[in-house]
Amino acid sequence: MESAGRAQAARDRVPRIDPYGFERPEDFDYAAYEEFFSTYLAILTRRAIKWSRLLKGGGGVQKSMTLKRYIRKGIPLEHRARVWMGVSGAQAQMDQNPGYYCHLLRGERDDSLEEAIRTDMNRTFPDNVRFRKGSDPCLQRTLYNVLLAYGHHNRGVGYCQGMNFIAGYLILVTRSEEESFWLLDALIGRILPDYYSPSMLGLKTDQEVLGELVRTKLPAVAALMDSHGLLWTLVVSRWFICLFVDILPVETVLRIWDCLFNEGSKIIFRVALTLIKQHQALILEAASIPDICEKFKEITRGNFVTECHTFMRKIFSEPGSLSRASIARLRERCRARLLAQG
């Protein structure tokens, strides 16, 4: 009874809708979240003071080891858009192309592109009050504009499912159509090339790279996958396509993206390896393909991923060394193998 009372008290204190507009799920552990956030709030306050000192003066964001260390410890929400724009190169692109975003929106109509985007509008964050048709303002129109502009900008990609979730998060953070567009361009054009192209070769390659990394660092899990003939794409494709959106808690995803914009796609491997290593024993209990798939869903839930500050410390310690050079070599080998397979 006492435990139930504490849970109800926490439910009464913690808002049902989070700061980003998402409704908390029915099975949300309010008591555990309140306990975590009471500690995390003190961390956020300290980080905000340090970030304000670092960014004082309002100039551009310059990459440095100090900035990298700060980013790994988390960017306060009020500074996120500015830092993401700076470290990703999106700010430089926007400054060099004044009026380009508006020009794209006024461009020649592409009925098939518009229809593909419209189809996904109501499927994008149905649990977020800011994306519902009745909300004021409704972010669906903003999302539509960003995706339409990007489809005109990068006709080789156009629109691909998954981009709506990424663009939606960018809009929630930046509150700016144009900045969201340029950040989407940084992700799709430079940080994650060929993830969303028709062949999705970059996406397929990186899923193969993860398989190779697991084979080296967690051979028992690789052996389980091999014994069932299970392809990595079946269990981790949404991790890569959606960059953990709708898979991990919002604040954890944003902490991952802080590092993704600054350090590149190797962060995705760090997150994936940490999830698998932390829950290796659970995964190895699986006795069938459906069971393995369910275990991979289970490992993205619970306190381990909710407690984002501890989780982010883990991703930079648990997987060990992941150098750009070693990832590049693995990519080259995996890409060649995929191309040979046709």
Sequence-ordered SSE layout with sheet pairings:
Layout: H1 2-13, H2 30-54, H3 65-72, H4 77-88, H5 90-96, H6 100-105, H7 111-121, H8 139-153, H9 163-174, H10 177-191, H11 201-217, H12 219-227, H13 233-241, H14 250-263, H15 266-278, H16 280-284, H17 289-298, H18 303-306, H19 308-315, H20 324-341
What do you see in this structure?
With 342 residues, this protein is mostly helical. Helix content is 67%, strand content 0%. The longest helix has 25 residues. It is globular, with a radius of gyration of 21 Å. The mean pLDDT is 93.
Relevant terms:
globular; 342 residues; mainly alpha
By oligomeric state, this entry counts as single chain
Strand content: under 5%
Categorize the overall geometry. Answer: globular
Number of helices: 20
Sheet with the most strands?
Answer: none
Radius of gyration: 21 Å
Helix content: 55-70%
Measured distance between first and last alpha carbons: 61 Å
Order of helices and strands: HHHHHHHHHHHHHHHHHHHH
In short:
The chain has 342 residues and is mainly alpha-helical. The protein has helices at 2-13, 30-54, 65-72, 77-88, 90-96, 100-105, 111-121, 139-153, 163-174, 177-191, 201-217, 219-227, 233-241, 250-263, 266-278, 280-284, 289-298, 303-306, 308-315, 324-341. Helix 11 crosses helix 20.
